[in-house]
Amino acid sequence: MDSRRRLVRVGSILSVPILWFVASRFGLLAGLPAPVEVVDTYVAELYRDDFWISTIRSTIRVLASFVIAAVIAIPLGLLIGRYTVFADLTFPALEMLRPIPPIAWIPFTILVLPAAELSIMFITFLGAFFPILLNTIQGARGVEVEYSRAAQSLGADSYQTFRHVIYPSALPAIHAGMIVGMGLAWVNLIAAEMVAGGTGLGFLTWSAYTSGSYPTIIVGIITIGILGAASSMLVRMIGHWQVDWATEQPA
Amino acid sequence: MSKHDSTTDDSTTAGPTPETTGKTGAIDINDLTKIYDPEGEHVVAVQDMDLSVGAEEFVALLGPSGCGKSTVLECIAGYLDPTDGEVLVDGNRVSKPDPKRGVVFQENRLFPWKTIKENVEFGPRMHDSIEEGRAESILDEMGLDGFEEAYPSGLSGGMQQRAELARLLANDPDIMLMDEPFSALDALTKEIMQKKLLEVWERDNRTVLFITHDVEEAILLADRVVVMTARPGQVKDVIDVDIERPRDPEVVTTDRFTELRERALSVIREEAERALEQEDGA
Lengths: 251, 282
Description:
The complex is a heterodimer of chains A (251) and B (282). By secondary structure, chain A is an all-alpha fold. Chain A has helices at 3-25, 35-46, 49-82, 84-97, 106-112, 116-141, 145-153, 158-196, 201-210, 214-242. Chain B is an alpha/beta fold. Chain B is globular, with a radius of gyration of 19 Å.
């Protein structure tokens, strides 16, 4: 990337705190705390156990729900994508549930599931599950028939064809689904934490609102943003590492 | 002979068998008909085709595009079930793909997610028969040493095609089914590949069925050139290529080559015209 583009990008990032500073300095948005105030509050939060417990709780919830979603959605998606019988058996039911916004499940799951923790995890799971499932199905269906044929003519049985051809060839699509899924997992987690209460960054941000602590609300937002970006990056890195063959350029 | 033999691979019917000839890789196509019927369109790709390819013979299948050449190959490979008739290999009816019948596709079908070496070792790995150093020596023979760890996307078209040939040879098939393998290559690369293929075939005793629409390529490579009719595909003419081996690309300048080419071209021209008339009539 040339230096001019880099400069423009840095400018883009800097514009956010600058606009924020201007808005708070001239009172454009009533109640918006000044950046300095938020930095002070952030430093203070870093010394509080509650902040760290919330951060760690939220991170664990997202990662655990995401991993469970991937572990179920990827094999399920591959099977649905490759076997018509399996698709007919499961896909219509899943398609019926998919349009329901995960947040709509919150009251029901709080009532039905034995712990609020499970309810939050389930909502988070749903956010990651469907994007990963749909992308995996698409990836598995998109495998060109010649690759399976080539594998069979080299002596691969149907399991080996699945393992060495269908799965790797669907991987780029699976990773695209995982990136979207990770984003939606955070969205759903925060919403669920705000409603279900207890712990977590969603709850921390919401309780800052109810106690009128404006700077803490911004601290919550920034922390959620940083963790969201970091986890997307993690998924991207895993993706690049696993499908490095797709990025190699011709010699 | 029963057209609908319900038993599969192990059913022994007519045709030469390894027991009688001592060679493997004979193909017998009996009364082969393949009809595609997507949403009632009813396309007869191949109709009542008969063809025998001897073990270790090199046969080129030549014909205008859309004449069902690839359909025939796909039936022999075991990818398609014939609508009628049957394909026998060494006396056994073909019902599914088999590593004894290797296929080279027109566009390279190396697995892009595996390195060149992993691609070449794919077949042996599937039946646990990897020999240390064998992939390297085959790649070396194909002029691909140093590219073991590269991914297919890092290779040129000609190198990819050589790698695919290497993958096939590593699996040691009796029969090599090749569907216009060199048609996407530039003239020079194509010539190198043809030479390489002849070298390998003259040494290794394999049956080759080579599909092409290039008359010169067919005559240069094959023992017999089978010219197919326009759709529905059938055998129109069989031309014995009585040019001595080993052959090299220079033979195209000989009188005998020119004669054979003229003969093949006139048959093809006739078929191409008939195909055009068919279209006009439709």
